[in-house]
Design a protein that fits this description.
Blueprint (H helix, E strand, L loop, with lengths): L11 H7 L26 E8 L11 E8 L3 E4 L1 E3 L2 E7 L3 E11 L7 E5 L10 E3 L4 E12 L9 E6 L5 H14 L7 H14 L1
Parallel strand pairs: 1-9
Antiparallel strand pairs: 1-5, 2-3, 2-6, 4-5, 6-7, 6-8, 9-10
Helix pairs in contact: 2-3
Length: 202
Amino acid sequence: MSKNNSRNLGYLLGICLLVPAILLSSGCSLFSTKTPIDKNDQTLSVVYGYFDMEDAPSWGGIDWVSIKQYKPEVAYYSCGVEEGLFFHIGVDKSASIQVEEFGRNTRWYSNATYTYNFGGKGRNETARVIKKPGVHFLGSYKFKNIDSGSMFRQDSFDMVPAVAPSEKELLTKLLVIMQEDSDLAVYNHQIAMIEKRLRELK
């Protein structure tokens, strides 16, 4: 899996124009580049995963994750993000998806924005085909720096599978987020699917 090293693409305004998947709070998960999520639509699915960015040069986790839908039409989903957990609660039925990019918007100490490409050319480890409404785990991954061995070449990186946190741990956390956030608590269909999946994992 080929990865690009982090790169400075300018501050938030420029990134909002280039990458529609920027989000700064879990409430942003309510929208994709297609339409707002209908809380009464029971054909939608929940997807979620986790990125451990402790060893990344971007200091302190991730702020946004962009999921690309390849089929039946191209679309992008802006994920909610909470301490490495990323999620979206409105993925279309019959959708082929995978994480494309994710990143970090630095704060007071820098005006840099870090963007990482998970490997968008072809399928990567997060690829899933959504065939019916449900809860789909995209995996837990840890950032691993790959030293280029030369001061004249940029380092690269890989996102390697991580044992922890587990699917159950992350889904339990997501359920709490859904129940405690007034913007998300109205999505009864998604909450019911999460609760059902948690019962299956016990």
